[in-house]
Amino acid sequence: MxxxxxxxxxxxxxxxxxxxxxxxxxxxxxxxMLPPGGRVAVLAGPGNNGGxxxxxxxxxTERGYRVAVFLIGDRDSLKGDASLMARAWxxxxxxxxxxxxxxxxxxxxxxxxxxxxxxxxxxxxxxxEAANESRVPILAVDxxxxxxxxxxxxxxxxxxxxxxxxxxxxxxxxLLMPGRVLAGRLTLAxxxxxxxxxxxxxxxxxxxxxxxxxxxxxRPQLDGHKYDRGHALVVSGPITGTGAARLAARAALRIGAxxxxxxxxxxxxxxxxxxxTAIMVMRMYEADxxxxxxxxxxxxxxxxxxxxxxxxxxxxxxxxxxxxxxxTVVDADxxxxxxxxxxxxxxxxxxxGAPVVLTPHEGEFSRLFPDLGILSSKxxxxxxxxxxxxxxxxxxxxxxxxAAPDGIATVADNAPADLATAGAxxxxxxxxGGLMAQQMPAFEAATAGVWLHGAAAAHVGRxxxxxxxxEALPAVLSAxxxx
Length: 483
What we know:
It is elongated and about 80 Å long. A ten-stranded mixed beta sheet has the order 8-17-16-15-14-13-12-9-10-11, with helices on both faces. A seven-stranded parallel beta sheet has the order 3-2-1-4-5-6-7, with helices on both faces. β1 (39-44), α3 (48-62) and β2 form a beta-alpha-beta unit. By secondary structure, it is of the alpha/beta class. The protein has helices spanning 2-10, 15-33, 48-62, 80-88, 122-134, 172-175, 179-183, 197-201, 210-213, 243-254, 269-273, 286-294, 312-322, 333-336, 342-350, 362-368, 378-389, 424-437, 442-460, 468-481; strands at 39-44, 66-71, 93-94, 106-110, 138-141, 163-167, 185-189, 205-207, 231-235, 259-264, 280-283, 299-304, 327-331, 356-359, 392-395, 401-403, 409-411. The two termini are 38 Å apart. The chain is built from 20 helices and 17 strands. The longest helix has 19 residues, at 15-33.
């Protein structure tokens, strides 16, 4: 965003005009949160975020609101545009105290924005604590003060906002936890940046939405055939863990794969066959058997890991999958089995031509990449893992990040809380595998799969169980296709 502002100014836009428009956007949202005549407490910081707050204070006063401004520091220490906007404010300026919210119907948090890079302490921390404890609705400017714009992490103390207004584009901290929760409802305001600026900046991180991948989403063709839509193979675990593979297989079929087969150990054949109809079952004798099945190149995508079991047998099975020409999704036990020897997994991935997607949750991720825990940003951790492994990495959670080895990444924010249920990850692995079976590139398949997974969960709503997710996909896909 700093680069965007600099480029806008270089193109002829006055920086003070950007600040004026930002303050106008804040004032407009404030008006939607509090009727005219209400009291507004504006918390202003020592930088440009505080300048936005002074603009909003002035405009709201002109529109009939009773506004009090509380400044961290003193007016004479303000610089640049923030100083200019503070001089235009004709009302009193006070130091924030414990009673800053007394009588207020709204607090505007204009203390610190996305550029904050150190923990908040002292008077600013006390002001944040007083604002949060007041229970008065809070409108944050750019980001809730105390939230790291790059990672969403809390820097010492953070505002819990009801709503947030940000400018030009979202920041990672709006989408990554806990910043996403702290920001509340988000308004994205246009304050005059030309869209061509994005080409000059060349962003590598994107908000996961259908606009990114919808054009490449596989669609059945009128003159097509099931064999044109790929054949996904899902590897089943032993008799004690067959359900995960069936969930993945069902998801692969629902997402559009033309054919889906479950490769089953002999002891699990009956259990799998008894519950599968449109999905085929093949007997598989350990790693050699899987290699034999995948020697049929028509089986062009394989999902391995859900309830596979952990140990040398699983390592051999995953290795057999990676020795094939099939696009591969490695999940769950397939990842954990390499906890002691992650480099051996990464070497196999980098030595093959077909794409690989790894789908760890945080626990599995920490086993494969134990040293990356020092990185505070989930986005940075996923990118580093993708670069190190040579795979597309799907780091799951309420803020799932998909990262490719070249550094491009997406962050999703459409997963409802109901999605935290047993088997949901198995379904996601199957969805991604089903899309890759249809020749969708790995990064796009993973990004689309993550969004569709969240959308399917939202479609089902409360009471969701993982079996519901594949059955919700027809409605979600049909809505995307349009009339």
